[in-house]
Amino acid sequence: MSATQSPTLHVIFGPSGAGKTTYALTFARREKVVPFILDEWLANLFAPDMPEPIEYDWMIERVQRCEAQIWSVAAGCLAAGTSVILDIGLMRRADRARVREIATETGLPLQFHFVTASAESRRERV
Fold first, then answer.
1. Could you give the 3-state DSSP secondary structure of residue 84?
2. Cα dist from 120 to 16, 23, 49, 87, 101, whole Å
3. Rounded to a whole number, what is the distance in angstroms from the first to the last CA of the chain?
4. Which pairs count as long-range contacts for 20-23, CB under 8 Å and 24+ apart, including other chains?
């Protein structure tokens, strides 16, 4: 990235098991951007405390906390001039629209990355 180029908010989406996390980590190394992987945050912060069986409300609360913290740290990276790539789900069109609104409001360049794989590959991974 040149000194005059703005940092970019890269966002991944795609079906479960498509390889989004692998893509994000590979992209981050190649392009020198900071990756934010929701599943890694959840596993590192909350897996040891996870109830058995998993309770939906318990999990959703922690997903929301992680997303809020990811956005906060990612915003700091972007403000410092460093691009980021987010792997935070965004399966619904409304979620992607919300990200687009945030980028527009803050004047950030936004690039979506759609990742997919064959249904057979996705089934094997999940």
1. strand
2. 12, 18, 33, 22, 34
3. 36
4. 20/87, 20/115, 21/87, 23/87, 23/113, 23/115
Tens-place pLDDT, residues 96-124? 999 999 889 988 999 999 998 888 888 78
pLDDT for the residue 2: 46
Instruction: Note the pTM of the prediction, 2 decimals.
Output: 0.85
Which residue matches tokens 């893509």? 23
Higher-confidence position of 4 and 50: 50
* H or E segment and range at residue 125: helix 119-125
In this structure, are residues 113 and 27 in contact, taking their beta carbons and an 8 Å threshold?
yes
Alpha helices in 8-118 (DSSP H): 20-31, 38-46, 56-79, 93-106
